[in-house]
Structure formats: structure tokens, C-alpha cells
Give the backbone structure.
Amino acid sequence: EVVQTKDIKSSLKSLGLADNEGKGVETSTGIGLPYFQNTLNIIEETSELESHRILAPLISEALKVINPKIDIKVSRKDFKGKTMPGSTPGLYQQFKKDDGTLGYGIFINSIRGKSTQDLETTILHELVHAITVHITQSADKNWNTKELPADVLRKIKNYGAGIKKIYRSFKNKVESNELATITVGGIALTADNWKKWLKLRSLVESGKIKNLKEEEMSFYNKGIKAFYPLTNVEEFITGALTDPSYQAILNQVTYSKNKSMLESLWEYVSKIIAQFKTVDGKFVNPGSALEATLENVISSLAAQGVEIKPSDTTPAKAPRAAESETA
């Protein structure tokens, strides 16, 4: 697909993500990593932002170790074929491939972005998202760990486990009604509402939409934003890194040492990235100014998240007969 604006076309070309005609890079078999590595090298060498030049080589090293099979798509349409609005600069997505297996990919909106710095921010944000998800999955059989000290590898896994602990704590607080005073889209985060939504979700996914009353469908659709991030740690990370309203909720809940869940999550993410080598081949020293700078950059990137629908759930629609009755 040809990129549609002059500014974003120039930015994508400068970062190696579009050819001279403006056609965006696109892969479909989990081979997008070399493109991201090339882009990170360009950011490290040419970015006008020091924070981006610091973060890019650390992300690059993280990707070399984790070795994720991810795709890239620079287009108006995401990996599910949906045309995305300009308000969505990028997405890290799980999607179903043609052979029925699940794939992971980073979508970059080909009409979003007024400067190269904006595009750099989107790319760094989505790659941090991808790294965090892959580490919490604990599927390290494809990791390249030869040059990674055993104690560093252990720390990375421990920080990943820490993120999963935050997710479980948040979920437990909902199930014990500790967050019942908090609402998302008019839906209170109560145990009963969570159970009700799960039951409705089961009916929707099993194709039994006809069995739902109009008010039940309305509750289910509103509850997607409130409860979908509770379904698994991957969606929890997505909510924490991409949805401002969910970030606001996590920032209200104290987790440890007078830090909110959101602050604790960002701290774990920044500590994960800090375990990889800097541009000069050294590791980030704990407690150093560089580590503090890195945490600030990660927090800033997370704040760039845009409000999106969950990656694999769409609102339930009533059968046509029911729609005609309520029109």
C-alpha cells in the first residue's frame, strides 16, 4: 500500500520502513525482526532525541536475545484487515494466520505521524510492548542466551514474573470487590460484574448471541473495556501500555512501597530493558543516572498509548431481526 502523506512517507523511508514509491514494509511469516533491527540502528545513529538514541540499542539487544517471531505491517489496514483511523499510530497484535495458527505483529499506520520523532516513538513503544509480552510468556526455547550472563537471565525472568504478579494482584482485587468503587465506561469493577461478563463472553464466543437480551448485549459490550484486560496477562499489559483510561485505574491502586500498580509495572519494564547492553557494550548499572533516565523514557513511551479496543474481542451484535426491532 502506498503511503498517503508526504511527511509520513519521508519519515518511513528515512527509517527503512518504505521504499522509494512509498510502499510500506510488510511480512507475514514471522520474519519482521531484521526490519526492526535496521530501524533501531537508524534511530540509534540519527535520532534527534537523546532518549531515543539511548533506548534503541537496548531494545535491539533485547530483541536479539528474545528472538521473537513477529511480523511488521506498514499500511492503513492492520493484521486483521481493518482500516485503522489516524488516531491509532500503531498496534502490537496477536492475529490468526492463513493456516489457522496464531501470529504476532506490529502494525504501523501509514497515514499517522507528522515527524520522524513521532514515528520513532510509535516504533519504540510497540517494540517495548512486544518484548514485555514475550518475556512474560516464559517461552524461552527460542532465546539466544549464549552471551547473556546467567544472573542477568535470571533477573529478566524474575522481572517478567513480577509483572505477572501485578496482574494477578489486580485481578484478585476485582474478585474480592476491593475496586468496586471504580467504574470503566459506566461498569463497576465488582466481582459480580466480572462473573456476569465472563458468562456473557462465553455465550458470545460460542455463537449463542440470539440467547442474549438487549440489555445483556449492552452490558457485554460496555464490559469489554472494563474486563478484557483481566482475561490474561497479555491483555493486561496491552491495557496498561495502550489505554489511558486503564492506566488511570492502575495509577489509583497502591501496589508496594507507596507505588501504584502502574508505576510498579513501568519499573519492571524498564528494569527488563536495562538488563541488556548499552551501545558501548556495557550493562546499565543499578541505581545509576542512566537507569533513572531509562525508567523515565519507558514511562513517557507508555503514556503515548492510545485508547483502542482489545486485540481479539469485538462488540457483540444482535441478530438482524433484533436489530430491526430496535431501529
